[in-house]
């Protein structure tokens, strides 16, 4: 007898519209309820989907909230404003504007706090947020090198270390400024951060015994 299930059909395909609604509902619930009171049942109700729909996509609240926050940072785009300094200022101002949104603040602070006790959650933050947004550093550096603003980096391992350092400096500075110090990352502050970063990127390395 032939099976009544179509060959190769492992289950109902995921709906992009449902995913979007679920992630938006997660961010809204974070703002309204906070991390401790947020439940997948509440998110399902807000999104208008069955609770089983969430469990087919996410193992639990930790994974769901990370993806909800990651979707916000996926909005970041590196503008082409004609110079490395202007490009950096443009993307940093975008980043600061996202962090100023209540759903971004609530979600990011919650998952970072939880990750201190959960190695798997920390890894998901790294892969879903940090590694995905390093694309901005790589794109910006390649563009600046094409303009002749930065020298080429033929050593792939050293280039990767530099990209990590740039990302850490920018992301760490903006997160600390906006979420820890609760100060505005306005144009003046962003301009100063950019100047410090560019000084480090364009400074000539010193040889042992120099100076």
Automatic annotation (TrEMBL):
What positions does the domain HTH tetR-type occupy? 16-76
Q: Which UniProt keywords apply?
A: DNA-binding, Transcription, Transcription regulation
Respond yes or no to whether keyword Iron-sulfur is given for this record.
no
Record's InterPro entries? Homeodomain-like_sf, HTH-type_TetR-like_transc_reg, HTH_TetR, Tet_transcr_reg_TetR-rel_C_sf, TetR_C
Q: Which GO terms describe its molecular function?
A: DNA-binding transcription factor activity; transcription cis-regulatory region binding
Q: Which residues bind DNA?
A: 39-58
What name appears for this protein in its UniProt entry? TetR/AcrR family transcriptional regulator
Question: What organism does this protein naturally occur in?
Answer: Streptomyces tendae
Q: What is the lineage of its organism?
A: Bacteria, Bacillati, Actinomycetota, Actinomycetes, Kitasatosporales
């Amino acid at each position: 007898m032939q099976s009544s299930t179509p060959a190769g059909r492992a289950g109902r395909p995921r709906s992009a519209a449902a995913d979007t609604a679920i992630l938006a509902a997660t961010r809204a619930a974070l703002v309204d309820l906070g991390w401790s009171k947020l439940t997948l049942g509440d998110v399902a109700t807000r999104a208008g989907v069955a609770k089983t729909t969430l469990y087919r996509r996410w193992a639990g609240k930790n994974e769901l909230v990370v993806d909800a926050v990651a979707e916000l940072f996926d909005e970041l785009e590196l503008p082409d404003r004609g110079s490395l300094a202007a490009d950096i200022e443009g993307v940093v101002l975008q980043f600061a504007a996202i962090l100023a949104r209540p759903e971004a603040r609530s979600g990011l602070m919650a998952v970072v706090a939880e990750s201190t006790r959960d190695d798997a959650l920390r890894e998901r933050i790294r892969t879903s947020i940090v590694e995905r947004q390093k694309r901005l550093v790589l794109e910006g550096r390649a563009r600046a090198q094409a303009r002749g603003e930065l020298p080429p980096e033929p050593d792939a391992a050293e280039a990767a270390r530099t990209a990590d350092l740039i990302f850490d400096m920018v992301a760490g500075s903006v997160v600390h400024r906006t979420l820890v110090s609760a100060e505005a990352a306005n144009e003046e502050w962003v301009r100063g951060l950019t100047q410090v970063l560019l000084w480090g990127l364009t400074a000539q390395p010193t040889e042992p015994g120099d100076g």
